[in-house]
Design brief:
With about 160 residues, this protein is α/β, with parallel strands linked by helices. The protein has 5 helices and 4 strands. It has one domain: Collagenase (Catalytic Domain) (3-Layer(aba) Sandwich). A 4-stranded mixed beta sheet has the order 1-2-4-3. The radius of gyration is 16 Å and the shape is globular.
Length: about 160
């Protein structure tokens, strides 16, 4: 999987970016994604993620991670088919650096674990997982823990 990283805060340690890169590629392989799949991960502050949350979800507050899936078929759209398809562009993951730091402290685990959790959560959303009801939430959260543990980034 090809991953583009953008740090609009200029504050994310390269070690964290490397871990997220490896984790997302591991998860993609476990989920059977093709190697040419593409995503982006952008790190922002609370102000920027609040603006995105307000504009796209009509929720005027900061959140920890937002995913923008490009593979969801909208109403009236025609599904691409055939052998000559472009690389699979899954979408974008946006992570609040401020929220990640707050939550790492709150949950008493490392910032590395929190960044990994948030990035993986975003990827699973891009793959169609959701947590709108209890059943789907259980499936998604179990998948997150399974992948984080298998990768070697368990709760500490």
């Amino acid at each position: 999987m090809l991953i583009d990283f953008f740090d609009e805060t200029n504050s994310v340690n390269e070690e964290y970016v490397k871990t997220i890169n490896e984790l997302l590629k591991f998860a993609a392989k476990q989920e059977g994604l093709e190697d040419s799949a593409e995503i982006s991960v952008t790190f922002v502050n609370n102000r920027m993620i609040q603006e995105l949350n307000r504009n796209y979800r009509q929720i005027d507050q900061a959140t920890d991670v937002i995913s923008f899936a490009l593979q969801e078929q909208g109403e009236g759209e025609i599904m691409i088919s055939g052998d000559q398809r472009p690389p699979l562009t899954l979408g974008d993951i946006v992570i609040s650096v401020d929220k990640a730091k707050e939550q790492a402290k709150e949950y008493q685990h490392s910032l590395k674990r929190e960044y990994g959790f948030l990035a993986l959560h975003g990827l699973l959303h891009l793959l169609g997982y959701d947590h709108l009801n209890k059943t789907d939430e259980q499936i998604m959260f179990n998948k997150q823990e399974e992948l984080l543990n298998a990768f070697g980034l368990p709760r500490e």
